[in-house]
Amino acid sequence: MSNSHLFLKPGFIKVPLQNGVGRYVCQLQRVVLKFCKNHGSSRGMRDFIESDLVNFAMDNPAVVVYLKPRRHRSAVIKAEYLNGDQQWLGCKNFTKEEILKWLNLLVTQSQYHTGTRIRKLWHTDNPSIQGPWTPFTFRDPKLNLASFPNEELAKPQDSNETNHEALIELFKKQKLDDLEQRRAE
């Protein structure tokens, strides 16, 4: 294990506004495509801009696309998200198909989990006032006063019927109760 986690900001994974419950809100706000007009490593970016940029912009109307030509620099994609995070992607010698795949990835990811060291594996915004559940939550209180080893508690339970048979009996009982209710009405 490396010490790279020390430089990540700690936090929890949060889903913004329960995204996808009511309507989907694209988390990518802005994309800046930086490229050189003459440099050979920006050829894929220039080909993408000439052929596929209009279709990408029409498919993703919520994303603002900026073009920024720069002299003697390799191509870069800068993505800015609604939460203020930014992501940089160097596109040196990428083809236009690779650039389109990366842009589609940036559009679909949420950016809430990258660059964050997770404090706990489980987190809720509305914690229970009853406290956490433990395996002893619904145990019989007489176990608090029992002294162990206890012969009575060590005995196997006498159950001649299997779980399957118990379920069948419950089902039959429910059916009889429903019939009695209908007759009473």
From TrEMBL:
<keyword id="KW-0687">Ribonucleoprotein</keyword>
<dbReference type="GO" id="GO:0032543">
    <property type="term" value="P:mitochondrial translation"/>
</dbReference>
<dbReference type="InterPro" id="IPR039927">
    <property type="entry name" value="Ribosomal_mL43"/>
</dbReference>
<dbReference type="InterPro" id="IPR007741">
    <property type="entry name" value="Ribosomal_mL43/mS25/NADH_DH"/>
</dbReference>
<keyword id="KW-0689">Ribosomal protein</keyword>
<feature type="domain" description="Ribosomal protein/NADH dehydrogenase">
    <location>
        <begin position="37"/>
        <end position="110"/>
    </location>
</feature>
<dbReference type="InterPro" id="IPR036249">
    <property type="entry name" value="Thioredoxin-like_sf"/>
</dbReference>
<dbReference type="Pfam" id="PF05047">
    <property type="entry name" value="L51_S25_CI-B8"/>
</dbReference>
<comment type="similarity">
    <text>Belongs to the mitochondrion-specific ribosomal protein mL43 family.</text>
</comment>
<keyword id="KW-0496">Mitochondrion</keyword>
<dbReference type="GO" id="GO:0003735">
    <property type="term" value="F:structural constituent of ribosome"/>
</dbReference>
<dbReference type="GO" id="GO:0005762">
    <property type="term" value="C:mitochondrial large ribosomal subunit"/>
</dbReference>
<protein>
    <recommendedName>
        <fullName>Large ribosomal subunit protein mL43</fullName>
    </recommendedName>
</protein>
